[in-house]
Specification:
12 strands; 18% strand; 39% helix; single chain
Length: 322
């Protein structure tokens, strides 16, 4: 007897019935960049289709994002000035704090997540304050905790620490609780690798390190077991969701983290992954929309509950509101 699996591939209806992994618009989180000024909507050259917004224009965008079915945005801020300690990250009138308040006034039902890190705010581009040329873990954690509270003051739903300092989830949870924000959640960049796929983002966020690199605090790409360890530590410290970043080169890590944690798992389909597909699409080397959807489906199939992706708007248009 010949076993014939093709019987269930014969028609689109059959294929839909037996599909093991389904992608929904509700799985998507849209990362966006906000900077100082008014009336700003400037294209980001290395990330076609993405923009720098000012507080007023990013708030205007939110109704169309909400109406597309995308449930959440992740905000990155470009401050009006930088210094050695990233002091503007904690300012009540900082660009992210203003953007959160403006978005929540306009679209209160949209989930707003904010990046908590110092790399966009320091003049040296590292993710923390420096001591003798190295990032001082504990001094940085103190600032991150203050930054998270200011985002909560502005009305954020979730804070997302991306710095990879040891102990920062516990410190942020403690500071939020002490400030009366027990209901504000933490989406932790639990497993963040020192990756070459971040190039376009660093241009967009103007946060490339002025010297050295971030391998002393971001993870070695060769380590998967350590990724599981980092994820479990953040769960223990009080994270509400955990993230793996980047996504495509680390699908195996997404799977491992999914298998050991009961928390929702997010994966970040990062700027380099996005830009490569866009560049190949522009040269007519690939079918861009099909590759986009196959990419997102692969991330979901690996075990991600949520996908942070610059493709969110394009994918939402294909997926609809189902």
């Amino acid at each position: 007897m010949i076993i014939r699996p093709r019987r269930l591939r014969r028609t689109q209806a059959l294929r839909d019935m037996v599909r093991e992994t389904a992608l929904s618009v509700k799985d998507l989180i849209y990362p966006m960049f906000v900077r100082c000024g008014t009336g700003v909507c400037d294209p980001i050259p290395s990330m076609p289709g993405q923009f720098h917004y000012s507080v007023d224009t990013i708030a205007e965008e939110m109704e169309s994002i909400r109406d597309s079915g995308i449930p959440a945005v992740l905000l990155f801020g470009l401050p009006d000035r930088k210094d050695a300690t990233g002091s503007r990250s904690c300012a009540a009138d900082g660009v992210v704090q203003q953007a959160v308040a403006a978005i929540k006034r306009r679209t209160p039902d949209l989930t707003v997540i904010t990046d908590v890190c110092l790399c966009e705010y320091t003049d040296h581009g590292h993710c923390g304050v420096l001591k003798d040329g190295n990032v001082d873990n504990d001094a940085t954690v103190e600032i991150l905790a203050r930054q998270a509270v200011t985002h909560a003051d502005a009305g954020v739903d979730l804070v997302a620490p991306s710095d990879m300092m040891d102990g920062r989830v516990a410190a942020i949870r403690r500071s939020l609780d002490n400030a009366g924000y027990q209901d504000i959640g933490i989406l932790s960049y639990a497993v963040k690798y020192a990756s070459a796929f971040y190039g376009p983002f660093r241009e967009a966020a103007e946060c490339a390190p002025q010297f050295g690199d971030r391998s002393a605090y971001q993870m070695d790409p060769g380590n998967a077991r350590e990724g599981v360890k980092e994820a479990l530590l953040d769960v223990e410290e009080g994270a509400d969701m955990i993230m793996v970043k980047p996504a495509l080169p680390y699908l195996d890590v997404i799977r491992r983290v999914r298998e050991v944690s009961l928390l929702p798992v997010a994966a970040y389909n990062v700027s380099g992954e996005y830009a490569m597909i866009k560049a190949a699409e522009e040269r007519c080397w690939i079918d861009g929309p099909r590759v986009m959807m196959e990419t997102l489906l692969s991330i979901k199939r690996a075990g991600a509950d949520l996908i942070i992706t610059y493709f969110a708007r394009e994918a939402a248009a294909i997926l609809g509101r189902g």
